[in-house]
Each structure stands twice: as C-alpha cells, then as structure tokens.
Design a protein that fits this description.
The chain is mostly helical. It is built from 6 helices and no strands. The protein is flat and about 75 Å long.
Length: about 150
C-alpha cells in the first residue's frame, strides 16, 4: 500500500487549551488559591480579636484585600489561558479568499464612507459646525441650532 500525499492527509486537530493548566497546575497558582481562604479566615477572626483589627484597618490590608480577592486571582491566572486560547485560534489554517470575495471587498473599499478620513487637527464631521454632515449643527441648516432662528 502506498502512502498518501501529505496534502490529502487530514491535519491533526490541536486540542483546545485547558483552563486548569493556568488556573491550578502551576505551583504559584496552588499557593495563591490556598492563601485566599487563610487570608479571609484571619480577616473574619479580626472581628473578634482586637490585636488583628488594627492590621485589617490599615491601608496595606486594603492592598491585600485586592490581592486575595478570588476574582483578582481568576483574572490574573486566566490571562495566560485567554492568551493561549486566542493564539490557538489565530494559528488555525484559513482558506484563501475566492475571487468573488476579493472583488466584493474591493467594492466595499470603494464605497467606504469618508467619515474616518480627515486631516490631523480637523474636528470630527459630526461636530464640525461648518461641515454639512453634522446635521442640525451645520451653520447653513435653516432648521439647525446655528441658523439664527431663535426659539
């Protein structure tokens, strides 16, 4: 039996990244998740123990509050997961555009609105009283704000 050419063979599917690889598996993630309940237990104990109360009323305790807030941990550790997930989708193979799709994109570029095209320092057309595209702000609009017709 002959081997098939490599272009006919199906490409192996890349497994999607697992969130657990970033949220729990590294040693620093385990340490951080384990420290969260300890911090909050001591914070709850500070309600009954006056010696701890002074610390938890300090500004440093406010920083620790943010550091040991579970959503902060999830956000920081989940950043690596999100980056890997986006990189995976960015490296997927894309089919080239057909001639009809390229033609359609070129037509869309021709008919693109020129609102985004302006010189540096020139105001946005929607807010320029001397630009007819600004609607009722336009000086030449007989029903506009700047028409001279008072209420």
């Amino acid at each position: 039996m002959q081997n098939k050419p490599s272009s006919i063979l199906p490409k192996p599917e890349a497994s999607p990244p697992a969130a657990a690889d970033w949220l729990w598996r590294p040693w620093y993630a385990k340490l951080w998740w384990a420290a969260i309940p300890i911090y909050w237990a001591v914070a709850a104990a500070s309600l009954k123990v006056p010696a701890l109360r002074a610390f938890f009323e300090s500004a440093f305790a406010g920083y620790l509050y943010v550091l040991f807030f579970p959503f902060t941990t999830l956000l920081v550790l989940g950043f690596g997961f999100a980056r890997a997930w986006l990189n995976r989708s960015a490296t997927d193979e894309w089919e080239p555009l057909t001639a009809a799709e390229i033609e359609e994109l070129e037509e869309m570029e021709i008919f693109r609105d020129d609102w985004s095209v302006r010189r540096p320092g020139q105001p946005d057309p929607a807010f320029d009283i001397y630009d007819p595209r600004s609607g009722i702000l336009y000086v030449g609009n007989p029903n506009g704000i700047n028409s001279g017709n008072a209420f």
